[in-house]
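Technical appendix A lists one of the benchmark inputs used to test multi-chain prediction within the project. The record comprises three sequence entries:
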Amino acid sequence: MSWVNAIIQGVLLGGLYALFACGLSLMFGVMKVINLAHGDLAVVAGYVAVGVIAVTHIPTVWSFVLVVPVMAVLGYVLQRTLIQASLNRGLLTPLLVTFGLSVVIENGLLQFFSANSHSLNIGSLVSDSISVGSQISIAYLLLVIFVVAVVVLLGLQYFLSVSRQGRLIRAVADDREAAQLAGADYRHVFGIAAAIAFATVALAGIAFGMYSSFDPTIGTDQLLLFAFAAVVIGGLGSLWGTLAGGIILGVAQQIGAQINSADQILAGYLIFLLVLLIRPQGLTGARTPS
Amino acid sequence: MPTDHDRPLLEVRELTVHHGQLCALSDVSLRVFPGEVYAIIGANGAGKSTLLRAIVGLDRPTSGSVLFDGADVTPQRTERRVAAGIGMVPEGRRLFPSLTVEENLLVGSSYARQGPWTVERVYELFGWMRERRTQRATQLSGGEQQAVAIARALVANPRLLLLDELSLGLAPVVVRRIYGLLPELLAGGVTILLVEQDVSQALRVASSIHCLLEGRTTLEGPPGDLTPERIEDAYFGLTASKDGATPHPGTPR
Amino acid sequence: MSAVTAAAASAAQETTVRVTRSRRPAGWLVLIAVAAIAVLGYLPYVVYSGTTDQLVNVFILLTMASMWNLLAGYAGLVSVGQQAFIGLGAYFVLIAAQHGMNPFAALPVAALGCGAIGLVVWWLVSRLRGGYFAIATWVVASACALVISRFASLGGGTGAPLPGLSGLSPTLLTAYTYWIALAVTVVTLAAVYLIMRGRLGLVLTAVRDDEVGARSIGARVWRARQLVFVVAAVGCGAAGALLIISQLNVEPTAAFSVQWSAEMIFATIIGGIGTIEGPIIGTVVFFVLQQTLSQYNAWYLIILGLVAIAIALWAPRGLWGLVAEPAHVRLFPVGYWLWPADEPGPQRRRLGGLLRGKRQARDASAAPRRSRQ
């Protein structure tokens, strides 16, 4: 029974990882940039939430109303400045610049917030759970996060396939010059895509802050790698693949934790490396990464 | 839009473009008047595509300028020039592969100017396109893709349409059908500047011919004034125009 | 970067050219290098151990940065996982010492062991490029740290002290450590220099300038990259071995920290990626900044990160590029200089050799795009 429980926990945790991953996937799909600062930005969102709650005293659950727009604007600005500048300078530069950004953010957070861990207090919600039978309990919070993740992915899918702006984003991702010939300012479209990616990162960061405590180093130590693993396992270019990737990662971690509590994270990495080895295009992707 | 027929819609002045160290275009000048079909001919690597890309702003010139409707657009980005009324069907069609036919057209009309062309009007012209509008653009045949590429440029209602190698990779019968569209476009008030490797095709449709060889203008004029021998010389550069026909660069017609 | 092809283009115009390795006879450079090594080697007799300890850290960083430069600057492989080999190098020394081996003797063994592991890791990541490669190597490093900390005999998550050196007097230990570190650095720099001077260097230069073109003429790209990856694993393993010897203990989180990647990447970018001199300059700048800002905690990494971002964007040849390029100075002449035979002055161009002629036309068009990178 504990195994079933572990798998259920893993699936729900997968929703959180998918939430982390979809922004990374979007930015790679559209700008061909792997943002190495992605995990740190989620942590930034967590700290922004801490600050927003401290200043405005709004309920923790509603902090996203302020944090998401702040992060979206930050995403647009960063894309139009540093990331766009790095895009014009060859293949390696975006990696170097986003890695530099990651180190700057992490140490900036260390400097201003110390290495102590924080969390977003949501009272009893964090421990409330639904019991099914005697051994299976489903944490409310994880369930809510999973639902949020699915809603975000659905919304993103709908936005990209139906709206004018979503269509432009896909067009620019396909062929930047052809989109320019249609009158689109691809830099602005990139900015919009980054804003959306950062908005999802903000949600993921807040959700993570409610689920667990966080400190400045967790962005690079875990979150970036988890997000990337979910993207790779699921396959690029497919939001549902990303959800599947997140779930597989989550389940692998929970099963690893069942075997030995110290093996939780390692099990996730091993699944990731296994997928890289046997199917580098991911479970749903057809294209090979290049 | 009332435009004085004495004033060129597009004027290129002494345009030089480098691809790195390689000089792709050297000192090329031309003037395209409203209602014209202006054809640029030349062999592979003559700089034809570079010229079109520089006109629309995808390639940056080293020197020289591009004037559209009397205004200098040289410093402007592509999207500004598109907004001003320059449209382009790029070489190789460049449809958005992950978008459907209709989505390709909708992207084309995202920043459309006022004018006669709409997605609906395109569907009236090409009945099959409406039927296949939900298909991926990549599932179409080469000729169909070319039609969609033209339609995608048309729905923005350009005043000047740049057509790069429409016939590339298409069967002759398809090429004829595509070129059969030109009168329809001209009737809608579009001026056309096209690039063509097939000289006879260009001579059939064009009111002006401009021949490039290794990035330089070798011949320019209305097709009626040019003998096949002179065109051949200019196209291949075999002889240095021994009959004294050394027009250009930049000679006004 | 594109100077290769620029020179090829100009070579086509000149009727006769002379090709030399360096603009001036390189003999005096060898003398300077030998003198510098001699002076550095003599230091333990004249300075306090605090200074040599600091220099050991400089040497460790310089070794790592040179290896990362070889990976990213020459082979185009942006690894963010070199800390895997730093940690493994340290732990290999620990394991050997626990079995009674002298830690100094264990250093080359640990380095070669890292080379073997590097071969396995390469098999895992060799198909990946760009960001995929970066994060995959990073995950490998994290996985290594997690595996190592499972072994109670190696101190688990809290680490272990290094046995086997308690017999030496502190003075001698400091001096030996310093000399070994100096030796590792000299060997590393010499290895990079020889690699880039040899056939492999030509292949790497060709790949960097135009991967498809290099493949099409049969350059063995995959093998060249494999060799570079293994060499970098050996070098970083040696750096890790130095680390445990100089600190006399090891702790998994610190040994496998991504901060090592940050330091080697920043030092290389700031100094100048794609040159042998770059990591040297960058390491010096890094340490000066680190010492200056040491009382401000994390600030030194923030400032170094910002400087590295700025340099990556606006001065991609780094400080060395800013200084050396206008002056045409090269301490390690790995390229070629092209001289018109009838003119005494040097052409302002460097020739990377190998592929010219065949690739001339396409390169001429592709070159400047790259030179701006």
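Strands of chain A lie at 129-132, 136-139. The longest strand of chain A covers residues 129-132. Comparable benchmark entries are summarised in Table A2.
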